[in-house]
Specification:
- By secondary structure, this protein is an alpha/beta fold.
- The model has no long low-confidence stretch (mean pLDDT 94).
- The strands form six sheets. The chain has a twelve-stranded mixed sheet with strand order 8-11-14-17-20-25-28-31-34-37-39-40. A ten-stranded parallel sheet has the order 9-12-15-18-21-26-29-32-35-38, with no helix packed on it. A nine-stranded parallel sheet has the order 10-13-16-19-24-27-30-33-36, with no helix packed on it.
- Pfam families: Hexapep, Hexapep_2, LpxD.
- It catalyses: a UDP-3-O-[(3R)-3-hydroxyacyl]-alpha-D-glucosamine + a (3R)-hydroxyacyl-[ACP] = a UDP-2-N,3-O-bis[(3R)-3-hydroxyacyl]-alpha-D-glucosamine + holo-[ACP] + H(+).
Length: 337
């Protein structure tokens, strides 16, 4: 897919300085630019690279002044960094602008879908599924019975959506994510074995949610596991049965959330955090990476450690922990005296 400098300037409302017909088909860092690539200069500490870059087109700020001869075609814009981000978003939209139903694929009875559907090869759509407009469902994806999907959703290759799941508008699911698998529910028996407790609830995912690769969201035992609007989940996260995550909370990779815990709005949770079950995490909470959460947390707290406690106290305590060998030696010396 090729774009000319003139076309790019039109998208960004910019001004071409150089060859308006210069063509690019790939993106690059300015220091790694090559023929046919598009790059940008936003940080002044990289300014020296614009005189040596082999990139065909470079996006720069309006106030950029060349101090030496340059060979790259310039596109002057108000904000080079923001414009480059806009261009990435535009490129991604064009790249994902697929439509039609590829074969082989399986669409069961009583399925309805809106215009603009893309259904990749080897997909399975179960009975009584409803899919909104402009859905992009990539190959090898499974959608179970009675699933409801809103508009403008993307399911990358290999996503699994179990039956009864409800998904809002503008949601993205990356490869390998599994939505609606059974919650981890087993009752111990007298003979030391376990009896599986049926998991008959579902998963509800509201608008503007993104779910990373290989993340799993379990269905509820009864009722619903709920992911509220604007939540962003990284890769390799485990969300257990009956968990609720409120609006605009972001969670980094390898975090595990045990059953029936409620997490508030606008929380930021680092990687490899473990959260026990049946807790309440307040709004605006920040949990540092690798923290172990064993009790409920109030609004706007910042915690770290395992078991986690106030971040300021943790930082002070850690200073003493690092000095513990010296402190022990000093105590031994005092005891000898």
């Amino acid at each position: 897919m090729k774009f000319t400098a003139e076309q790019i300037a039109g998208i960004l409302n910019g001004e071409v300085v150089g060859n308006p017909n210069a063509e690019v088909y790939k993106l690059a860092k300015i220091e790694e630019g090559s023929e046919g690539s598009l790059t940008f200069l936003a940080n002044k500490k990289y300014s020296n690279y614009i005189y040596s870059t082999l990139a065909t087109i470079t996006i720069v700020n309006h106030d950029f002044v060349a101090e030496q001869e340059i060979t790259t075609t310039l596109i002057r814009v108000e904000d080079a960094y923001k414009s480059f981000s806009t261009l990435l978003e535009y490129y991604n939209q064009v790249k994902l602008m697929k439509s039609g139903i590829e074969q082989p694929s399986m669409i069961s009875e009583n399925v309805t879908y809106g215009e603009g559907l893309y259904l990749g090869s080897f997909c399975y759509i179960g009975k009584n599924v409803t899919i909104g407009k402009n859905a992009k469902i990539y190959p090898n994806t499974f959608i179970g019975d009675n699933v409801v999907i809103g508009d403008d959703c993307i399911f990358f290759a290999g996503v699994r959506v179990y039956s009864e799941t409800e998904i809002g508008n503008n949601c993205t699911f990356h490869s390998g994510s599994i939505i609606g698998s059974d919650g981890f529910g087993f009752a111990p028996l007298e003979d030391g074995t376990y009896s599986k407790i049926p998991q008959i609830g579902n998963v509800i995912i509201e608008d503007n949610v993104e779910v990373g690769a290989n993340t799993t969201i379990d269905r509820a035992t009864l009722g619903s596991t709920i992911i509220r609007k604007g939540v962003k989940l990284d890769n390799h996260i485990q969300v257990a049965h009956n968990v609720e995550i409120d609006e605009n909370t972001v969670i980094a990779a390898q975090t595990g959330i045990a059953g029936s815990t409620k997490i508030g709005k606008n929380c930021m949770i680092g990687g490899q955090v473990g959260i026990a079950g049946h807790l309440v995490i307040g709004n605006g909470v920040k949990i540092q990476a690798q923290a172990g959460i064993g009790k409920s947390i109030g609004d706007n707290e910042v915690v770290q450690g395992s078991p986690a406690f106030n971040y300021g106290d943790f930082a002070k305590s850690y200073v003493h922990f690092k000095n513990l060998p010296n402190i022990v030696n000093e105590l031994e010396e005092l005891k000898k005296k």
